[in-house]
Amino acid sequence: MTNRSGLLSATDNFLFAAAVAEFGMLLRQSEYRSTSNFANVLKLATGAKGRDEEGYRSEFIKLISKAQTVAKGKISEGEMRTMKKLVGRD
């Protein structure tokens, strides 16, 4: 963990979990998402990736990037089917 202050002094595990929660709020368009956006989630998750022995965090970071692309309306039909499979909505 690098030298951080405030919230960012939390562990990488905590920060990554916060990124997952924020991502969920964006996907659900939660009333509590405030000024959250995919770029912030991506930055938080990438900065808190830490050791990723199983590759799950890397996969989550890829999922954030794909969701950001979907939100911008720049995704092919095939990529959309893949995204739906990843989140269990196929």
Question: What's the helix and strand layout?
Answer:
Blueprint: H1 12-27, H2 38-47, H3 56-71, H4 77-86
Describe it for me?
- With 90 residues, this protein is mainly α.
- The protein has one domain.
- Helices cover 58% and strands 0% of the residues.
- It is built from four helices and no strands.
Descriptive key words:
58% helix; 90 residues; 4 helices; globular; mainly alpha
The sequence of SSEs as H and E is HHHH
Helical residue percent? 55-70%
Report the sheet with the most strands, covering strand number, pairing sense and barrel closure.
none
Tell me the fraction of residues in β-strands, as a range. Answer: under 5%
Unreliable residue stretches: none
Overall structural domain count: 1
Please tell me how large the radius of gyration is.
14 Å
Number of strands: 0
Write down the oligomeric state: single chain
What is the end-to-end distance? 38 Å
> How many individual helices?
4
From the helix content, strand content and strand pairing, which structural class follows? mainly alpha
Task: Give the overall pLDDT as a whole number.
Answer: 85
Coarse morphology = globular
How would you summarize this macromolecular structure in one to three sentences?
This protein is mainly alpha-helical and 90 residues long. The protein is built from four helices and no strands. The chain has one domain (6-86).
